[in-house]
């Protein structure tokens, strides 16, 4: 069953001779529990695609459906709430809140919704991602790999329909990259979590269940 569907997505900037098609008719489906990697060179449109799939930017035309809901039929406020509850983000730069400790960062999306965290579930995430001894630490005192683990835990905390990871190992050394990729794989299997990961690295992409290739704003293989 598809948990995310993109249909005929276009993102066009400029007009006439200056027209740039960042996305040029992209359609794809992601199944529940699937770990998919979107691969493409810089400027291929993969980050634009991720922004559309996550409802962070609106397309020129086309639809994105998550858990049966069309994202771009929602008004901005409703879309913000839906995104917080259904889409987890993992960014290259971690985007942790520097004044909150590790545990506070992890449960932040849940608490923003006014919901009490599911301590059993949060505990299993913390254990899986090997963060038990760092819960009171501040982000500034963590290594890059540790910060990325916190970012993954935060993305999981609201039990989202899908996690979108944008170059999640881009700032990490090769050893830490391998560790984070193993943790993403474990996350996918342990929590039956759907993950779409953007990467330009073919070796990293091979760890996913499926590779979607993007060139010049089009899907050329999946």
Question: TL;DR?
Answer:
With 222 residues, this protein is of the alpha/beta class.
Number of strands: 10
Strand fraction equals 25-35%
Between the first and last Cα atoms, what is the distance in angstroms? 17 Å
Rg from alpha-carbon coordinates: 17 Å
Order of helices and strands: EEEHEEHEHHHEHEHEE
Count up the helices.
7
Principal-axis shape equals globular
Biggest sheet details:
6 strands, mixed
Strand order of the largest sheet: 6-7-8-3-9-10
Low-pLDDT residue intervals, each spanning 5 or more residues:
none
Q: Decide which structural class fits the backbone.
A: alpha/beta
Describe the structure.
By secondary structure, the protein is of the alpha/beta class. It has helices spanning 46-53, 76-86, 102-112, 119-128, 144-157, 174-190, 202-205; strands at 2-13, 20-31, 35-39, 61-66, 69-70, 87-90, 162-166, 195-199, 210-215, 218-221. Strand 7 (162-166), helix 6 (174-190) and strand 8 (195-199) form a beta-alpha-beta unit. The longest helix is centred in the last third of the chain and has 17 residues, at 174-190. The chain starts with a strand and ends with a strand.
